[in-house]
Specification:
disordered N terminus, Tetracycline Repressor, domain 2, DNA-binding, mainly alpha, homodimer, elongated, about 220 residues
DNA sequence: CCGGATTGTTGACGGTGTAAACATATACGC
DNA sequence: GCGTATATGTTTACACCGTCAACAATCCGG
């Protein structure tokens, strides 16, 4: 009775089913816990309940896994920024001011994401053996929900709402992007880590306003 | 004849003489080649011509060496910024404009350092096991030639030269610091790595002007 | 001159990334 | 339906890494 053969799913099947995805999920966990340097192929395999080198059937090397996790994190950040673009704005603002507030809003959302998820955030800037083999390509042409794409969208809307001179639109993402990333680094690893959250966000707000008003 | 005993310095003496320093130097090399993750205690020992674990007499663990190298890099960056504050400025500028140009100058110098020394630059933001044990302290109270201190000096000079409202002096380093760090990251690992150096520096210049004029 | 403190060495352990050889399940052509 | 190629997972092995403990050489203060 209870033949081993026909017993349904006694122990995990030989084939995992979706190892690649499970490995990325494990990698995401590890990144959350300790950033990019905490990400290990063997540990990921362990967490996926699979032999130490099974990951090599899905990722050429550690860097490949890192990249995959990085992409996943970018998607999460993109979602956070997208959510920020949908948040309610105080009423009684004209279109121009609303567009401006949207921009400041995603800036805040970016830094908030970094503060709330330091490990995952740092994953975004993980390296791939510096002498960069094939850095370009990237293919991410859709960029539909890429953080950078969303920033571009919001800037475009500012132009439409006459909150930004069309002539200054080109390259406008640069100072914004640089600022939010710089702020995040400063708060995460720099001189402002000790500050109470309250003051941190105040500092972020004023820096954002400064740059946005300068655009 | 030629007694082994008295033969002068046939082979390196048992005691290295200045291992700690040599290890930091080796670490600096390795950081130059491949950033923080390329830094290994054993390899540093090897380059210093010493046994694999000798480093432990001078550094508690790998992180300690990383920190030491980080300090060394900060000093180099500080020197670069200091040099920028001494560079000649075009004549015919009033004090206020000169002070402003100084600020832009160290901003450029910061990004230039990052571009010229990506590995060493990234070392500055190397982590020490995120759950940070004793992050504060830092003691670096002198800050004489610390990059952050130099930035503060230049901002103070702007106040003196009436290029910056004293009321806005507090926290003025934040957007500047965030910007130059963000720009560096963007150029090193972000969407602008492919750009010709020429356009990169142009982009840096305009972002700096935008922020400085907004201070 | 001697004995303790510094500094460096040796050997060992568990962890990592990676490659090669092997095993098993799945999928596809006949 | 069968049989085999292919995809996926396992085992074994190697070199490297960080770290610890035990040992050896040198230096320095009494």
């Amino acid at each position: 009775m209870a033949k081993t053969v026909s017993a349904p799913r006694r122990q995990p099947p030989y084939h995992h089913g979706n190892l690649a995805q499970a490995l990325v999920a494990a990698g995401l966990e590890m990144a959350t816990e300790g950033g990019p340097e905490a990400l290990s192929l063997r540990e990921a395999a362990r967490r996926a309940g699979v032999s130490p080198t099974a990951a090599y059937r899905h990722f050429e090397d550690r860097d490949a896994l890192v990249m995959a996790v990085k992409v996943a994190v970018l998607a999460q950040l993109g979602a956070a920024l997208r959510a920020a673009t949908r948040s309610r704005l105080p009423s009684g603002l004209d279109d121009s001011e609303r567009a401006r507030q949207r921009l400041i809003g995603i800036g805040r959302a970016y830094v908030d994401f970094a503060i709330a998820n330091p490990g995952r955030y740092r994953m975004i800037f993980a390296e791939a053996t510096f002498p960069s083999d094939r850095l370009q390509g990237e293919d991410g042409k859709d960029a539909g929900e890429s953080p950078y794409g969303i920033l571009g969208e919001v800037l475009d809307q500012m132009v439409v709402a006459s909150a930004l001179d069309p002539e200054r639109r080109t390259g406008a993402e640069i100072p914004m992007w640089a600022l939010v990333h710089g702020l995040s680094s400063l708060i995460l690893e720099g001189p402002y880590q000790q500050l109470p959250r309250r003051e941190q966000t105040a500092l972020v707000q004023s820096a954002l306003e400064l740059v946005v008003s300068g655009l």
